[in-house]
Write a structure and sequence with these properties.
By secondary structure, the chain is α/β, with parallel strands linked by helices. The chain is built from 13 helices and 14 strands. Bound molecules: NADP nicotinamide-adenine-dinucleotide phosphate.
Length: 348
């Protein structure tokens, strides 16, 4: 199959960007990706494998400093931004103006509600342009937005925690089978790579190893995405993330009360119907639960559940790799949908 499009990655030296570089290198439809470092900086590192020896030995992954002229000269069709939110907020409009499709892995363009967006504290230099750009963004979970993603100019790749929770809840919430007045509790745990490669005191080995801690209770940035995508009100959701002493992977345990008593088979059928034709969601049969280790290094979101004998108390468990289905893999999946290719192209 001849390669058809030219991709580029900004932020390839970061965790999500590196994963993208690795996935794009084996994508049959993508030419070798252009891997950018920061604007105009003469990079101290010329090759990605100097930072990540995992990718040495296959002809190399040269890095080059980001310049719009280089982007044009290389004929880039799709630009992946694996950059901090503020950087994506500034660069996406300019990339769109250059006629390039953008798939942004940050939270810059995911939210519609300005109240939810306020948590990012964006200071847009050109607010009107930012609003115009936001209006073009399609939320990047293919399982929910397949049609809008086709031919999208800007994809706001979904957050990692948000993906694990939204995919677990969407079938039942959309079918109105959940007692929302009772509230939904999402207890999520993530490996440390979710915080990016720059260690802080909170993510330092000494703080994380042999430990488990909760953080950002009632004010995690992904809360707004979950509310918007599921059509929930803030008081209907309690989401608490935790830091796990492992490098990667997310497990979300989600506590739900069903609107009326159901049989496990009916819950399973609702989920199977919803995800028919969605190859990147793996549903476990009733009573079987996924674990983080099953989905590591894959683009699967694994979902399982157990229903209490009363038929109303439901626990859903959802697992994914935060750097793959939670970031780079989902970005590639979004690109596949955007261009009308097999959704799993380059991801199997
Ligand atoms: N980690 C995850 O699990 C995950 C999941 C979903 C989404 N995301 C999102 O993906 C994005 C990248 O996350 P990450 O975890 O890969 O972060 P990271 O490991 O900290 O990497 C950040 C990347 O951005 C580059 N960068 C930083 N400031 C820049 C600037 N001013 N101009 C251009 N490039 C700049 C860094 O370059 P240097 O190497 O030169 O510093 C690095 O390549 C973030 O928006 C994050 O929220 C991450």
């Amino acid at each position: 199959m001849p390669a058809t499009i030219q991709t580029a990655v900004v932020g390839a030296t970061g965790y999500a960007g590196f994963e993208l570089a690795r996935l794009l290198a084996r994508h049959p439809r993508a030419k070798k990706a252009v891997l950018f470092t920061r604007t105009g900086e003469a990079s101290a590192t010329a090759q990605l494998d100097e930072l990540y020896p995992h990718v040495s030995g296959n002809g190399g992954y040269p890095l080059e400093p980001f310049r719009w002229e280089t982007l044009r000269a290389k004929g880039v069709d799709v630009l992946f931004l694996a950059t901090p939110h503020e950087v994506s907020r500034e660069w996406a409009p300019e990339a769109l103006a250059h006629g390039v499709h953008v798939i942004d892995l940050s939270g810059a363009w995911r939210l519609e509600n300005p109240e939810y967006r306020a948590i990012y504290k964006f200071h847009d230099k050109e607010p009107a342009l930012a609003e115009k750009t936001a209006a073009q963004a399609v939320y990047g979970i293919p399982e929910l937005h397949r049609d809008e993603l086709t031919n999208a100019a800007l994809v706001a790749n979904a957050g990692c925690y948000a993906t694990s929770i939204i995919l677990a809840l969407a079938p039942l919430v959309r079918a109105k089978l959940v007692d929302l007045d009772h509230g939904i509790v999402c207890d999520s745990k993530s490996g440390v790579s979710g915080a990016g490669k720059q260690p802080t005191q909170k993510t330092h080995f000494v703080e994380v190893a042999e430990n488990l801690s909760a953080y950002s209770v009632f004010n995690h940035r992904h809360t707004g995405e979950i509310l918007e995508q599921l059509g929930l009100q803030p008081e209907q959701l309690t989401f608490t993330p935790h830091l796990l002493p492992i490098p990667r992977g997310i497990l979300s345990t989600i506590y739900v009360r069903l609107a009326s008593a159901m049989q496990p088979a009916a819950v399973e059928e609702c989920m199977r119907e919803f995800y028919a034709g969605s190859p990147c969601v793996r549903l476990f049969s009733a009573g079987k639960l996924p674990q983080i280790q099953y989905s590591l290094h894959t683009n699967y979101c694994d979902i399982g559940f157990t229903l209490a004998p009363d038929g109303r108390r439901l626990v859903i468990v959802s697992c994914l790799d935060n750097l793959v289905k939670g970031a780079a893999g989902q970005a590639v999946q979004n690109m596949n949908v955007m261009f009308g290719w097999d959704e799993e192209e380059g991801l199997r």
